[in-house]
Amino acid sequence: MASVNKVILIGNCGRDPEVRYLPSGQAVANVSIATSSRRKDKNSGEMVEDTQWHRVTFYDRLAEIAGEYVKKGRPLYVEGRLKYGKYTDQAGVERNTVDIIATEMQLLGGREGGGMGEGGAPSSAPRASAPSSRPLGAGKPPADVIDDDIPF
Questions:
Q1: Which residues share a beta bridge with 100?
Q2: Theoretical Cys-Cys bridge with 104: which of 86, 129, 133, 146, CB 3.0 to 4.6 Å?
């Protein structure tokens, strides 16, 4: 049975990317992305904003692109997968981590200001994705399945 591990985020970058290179030469960049949601508090009736912070890791060419173009406060679209981990902190307490390993990224907003374009739509900005391991033609239906009698 197939399974899916996919995350899609649209949020604001909380800090400039930290780009480093592994001994193998592979580029790695880390950023934090904030996403917010609003809800009405049951007790007070006031609108409450809930902000979640997500740790995102980019690899290879995507890391280099993030290091060059992503800046603190810039709105981003990121697709990736969840990766869970554990570590022991300095006090000896075991901690759990959740990271998003990015496979696609799109910068939203204008080139300089980082805001959304007119009407709230993202303006044209660089879009990048990690190399796919899918074979060519994997997303296309077989030729014998295509129906030419579709009226639209």
A1: 56, 82
A2: 129
Looking at 2.40.50.140, 3.40.50.300, 3.20.20.150, 3.40.50.20, the CATH number of the domain 7-129 comes to 2.40.50.140
Please name the residue that has the structure tokens 């390993």. 101
Separation CA 124–CA 121 (nearest Å): 9
What is the SS3 assignment for 23-43? CCCCEEEEEEEEEEEEEECCC
The predicted-structure confidence for 20-76, as pLDDT tens digits, reads as follows 999 999 999 999 999 999 888 888 888 888 999 999 999 999 999 999 999 999 999
Token couple for 54: 């997500």
User: Which residues are CB-neighbours of 47 under 8 A, at least 6 positions away?
Assistant: 38, 39, 40, 41
pLDDT tens across 69-97, in order?
A: 999 999 999 999 999 999 999 999 999 99
pTM above threshold 0.70: no
- 8 A C-beta contact, residue 49 and residue 36: yes
Q: How far apart are CA 125 and CA 114, in angstroms?
A: 10
